[in-house]
Each structure stands twice: as C-alpha cells, then as structure tokens.
Specification:
alpha/beta, three-stranded mixed sheet, 60% helix, elongated, binds zinc ion
Amino acid sequence: MRSWSIPAGKLFGIEIRIHLTFLFLLVFVVLTAGSSAQDTTATVRALGLVGIVFGSVILHELGHALVARRAGVPAKAIILLPIGGITILDEAQGITESDQTWTRDIHIAVAGPLVNLMLAGAAALILPAAIPGFSVWNRPLVDSSSLLRSVVWLNVYLGLFNLLPAYPMDGGRVLRALFSRRTDPVRATQRAVRIGQAFSMLFMMVGMLITTRPESRADGYWLMMIGFFLFVGAQLEERSAVFHSVLQSVRLEEVMLTDFATLSPADTLEDALQKAVHTLQDDFPVVRGSDMVGVISKQKILDALRSDGNGYVQAAMNRLFDVATKQDSLASAFRKLAARNLSIIPVVDEQRLVGIVTLQNLMHSMALLAESRKLRRTDLEA
Ligand SMILES: [Zn+2]
C-alpha cells in the first residue's frame, strides 16, 4: 500500500501520504461533472466535493493517530484512500507484555468514526442556524451542487461506514479487540478477517448486481472497489498479525547462531578480512579473552582498509552495541537493532557470549518460523 502513495507533508509530526487511487477519484469526478454540464463551475464544485472527502478522511485518521499517540503508540504515517485512510502505527513501540491492550485498541478504532460523527453533528446544528433557508434534509444529500450539505452527510457516511464490523475497517477492529479478550491475537485477527472478507464479498456481489441498472452503475462500481480494497486489506492485516505473534513469542535462543566466528581487537584488518572470507557471516563480535568489546561488519572492515590502509580491528570496530539474553523476544531484538542502527546483537548468558543474532539471520529465520508455525497449526486442527 505504501509504495502506491505519494508524500504530502506532515501534520502533528505525522507523515501524510496520498494513495494514487485518490487521483483516480479526482479524474472520475471531473469526468462525470464535465459530462453533465459543460461549464467550469461544475468542475470547480466537483473538486470542492473531492476536497471535502479529503478533509474528512484526514480528520478521521488524525482522530486515530492522536488517540493512539496518547495511548503510547505513535503513528508513523497516514495514507489517504478515497474510501478512508490507513494510519500506520509504530506498533513495535506499543507492544506490551500485558494483555490489557484490547480497551486501548477499541479507543483507537472508535476515535476515527467519532470525529466524523461529531463533525456531522456540529455542521448539522450550525449550518441551518447560520444560513437562512438551509436544510440538512433536502435531496440530493451528497452532491457537488450542495457542498455544505455534503459536509454533513459525507461525514455521516464515513462515520457509519467505518463502524461496519468488517475488518480491517474500524468496526472490525473493535470486533477483533473483543475477540482478543478470549483468544490469542492471531486467532482473534483471523476470525475478524473471515467476517471482513464475507462483507467484502457481499459488497462486490451487490455492486455487480447494481451495475446492471444504468442509473446506479456508478454506485455499483464504487461498491465493487470498496469490496476489493477490504478484501486485500484484510489479507494484509492477517499476515502482519502472524508476523507480530512470531516476533512476540519466539525467544532468541531459538534463532540465534551458535556456530559463529569472532575477531580479536588485536587482529589486523587484513587478517580479519581473511577470516571473513571463510564464513557467510556479515557481522562479527569482537572478543578479548571472554569479554565482548565491540562489533564490526565485513563492510566496515573493507571501508576501513580502503580509506586508511591496514590497521587494527580495535580502531575500526563499533564499541556501542547492545547485548541480549537468550530469553529475550525477537521483538526486543528488532527494537535494539533499530535503535542503534546495528546489524548484530551478541547474545549472552551469565556474561558469557553464547550466540549472535544478525539482521541477515533474523530475516531467514522469520520466514522459516512462520512456515513451521503454519504447519504446526494445521497439524493441531487436523
Ligand atoms: Zn478509521
């Protein structure tokens, strides 16, 4: 989803990105407006309508992002789609060992639709009072010919639509949070995903039926598109839930490399390179006696050799590193790697170096672990 979007600045420190399908909406609206009336005001009004959708979706997502931030889960980016937005939370930071996250998840999920409904409510109260002759109930409810009325009804639609219990929409997230009280997060997600996919099928089928009638063809296409997005979104979410559970439950002793090469601070860089040639390892712990004194990568050795000629590992190694214990989770290892921008973590047991975890080996083992879990799960169910 991320690669199909373009950056559009920042709000409250959160990166805003616009998904390319939003541009399709723009083209779609301009084209349909152009055919009904040839004048430019119709097009300008149509663009105004797109602007209202845009603004309402941003406010909706900011609702999620700001409530999430207050709960300790910062938002990395907001991606705007014509049917809503996606707020990408930095969940690595929000991961807690407690299982009391379900109330937090419900608050975050409900915040978006709540923003829209409150906005609609406020507009419905203020507009008739401020503008003589303005009625919220005149038809059409949403149309480029009545932009202010559209503000009210678009927000009503956005709010209610997102509350449908169709994962990954907000209502579905509430459902998932409720499921997760009784069962593990992966299973809770899978249940919510099944319900979400049933909804998306329904949308696509109803959409297809509606397109057979010329007067509602556009609505039909919209429904089909929404159904399609829901389906894909649900699948992506399911995968990321499996990924997260692996991160949480796997201990480093299950994935660390126990057969690894080390370097000595007194090694020359040329010696170090010779050793590096004979292993697949990209990163090395530097050990003096039984003490860990630093880490160094193959690339760093090469760079140092190129720029300063032959020297000692001691001078080129990185002294700032984190160690982990065998019982630490993969999630904590990833956090430590990311925090210091490292690609290796030594694993120690009572001060003794017992293994290493590298970015390279984590990527490999993640894929293997996900597969072996799937196999085990189907074994259990069979
Ligand atoms: Zn939402």
